[in-house]
Amino acid sequence: AVSKDNGESFERVSKGYIVERDDIDPYIATNPCVLIDNGIWKMWYISGVRWVIEDDKPKHYYHIKYAESTDGIKWKKEGKVAIDFKSNDEYAIARPFVLKENGIYKMWYSYRGKTYRIGYAESLDGIKWERKDELMGIDVSDEGWDSEMIEYAFIFDHNGDRYMVYNGNGYGKTGVG
Fold first, then answer.
1. What pLDDT score does 46 carry?
2. Sequential DSSP letters for 53-111
3. Phi, psi at residue 125, to the nearest 5°?
4. Positive or negative, the Cα torsion across 85, 43, 58, 52?
5. Which residues contact 147 (CB under 8 A, 6 or more apart)?
6. Cα 5 to Cα 1, 9, 85, 172, distances in angstroms
7. Whether the predicted model's global pTM rises above the 0.85 cut
8. What distance in Å separates the CA atoms of residue 9 and residue 85, rounded to the nearest whole number?
């Protein structure tokens, strides 16, 4: 949606989706994080890779891809994978959150094997990323609301300090911290 009155009201730009499934993203194209950097709209989003049947149930596989736009409406998707699976145990990489600081792109995301954990990666161009999950500095607690899984981080700065909000067990059913 676009506002022409400084956010007082908004009008839809399209009746359909701005980013849709296609040959590059045939299963899922969702959950974007967008930054405008030097006039280029940069988007990291979830892209479905495949579905399989496991234990008589459908199981999704998705990772994070990258796309660009000059206007935030028409996106050029080339299938560039930003964050891929680190091991055969992983099958879901979700909820990218990207910021650029001192010329370095920093991404927090959720990765899943048995349960979700929060990962971290860095990039010089926003396209080729180095996973640095070991630098995250947080894992599940020994007990309590976030003792089984942590996921879907949101990062913000306030009064000179950096904060992270994230979901706990059951995708946040037991709490947010």
1. 97
2. EETTEEEEEEEEEEEEESSSSSEEEEEEEEE--SSTT--EEEEEEEEEETTEEEEEEEE
3. -120, -5
4. negative
5. 140, 141, 168, 169
6. 12, 7, 43, 36
7. yes
8. 41
Q: Which residues touch 28 (CB under 8 Å, ≥6 apart)?
A: 21, 46, 47, 48, 60, 62
DSSP state of 114: S
Summarize pLDDT for 89-105 with one digit per residue, the tens: 999 999 999 999 999 99
C-alpha dihedral (163, 167, 169, 173), degrees to nearest 10 = 140
Average pLDDT per block of 10 residues along the chain, 177 residues long:
94 88 94 96 97 95 97 95 96 97 97 96 98 94 97 96 96 94
8-state DSSP, 52: E
Amino acid 17: pLDDT = 86
Q: Is-contact 129 140, C-beta < 8 A?
A: no
Tell which residue, 95, 87, 103, has the closest CA to residue 120: 95
Give me the phi and psi of 28, to 5 degrees please.
-145, 135
User: Residue 141 corresponds to which amino acid?
Assistant: S
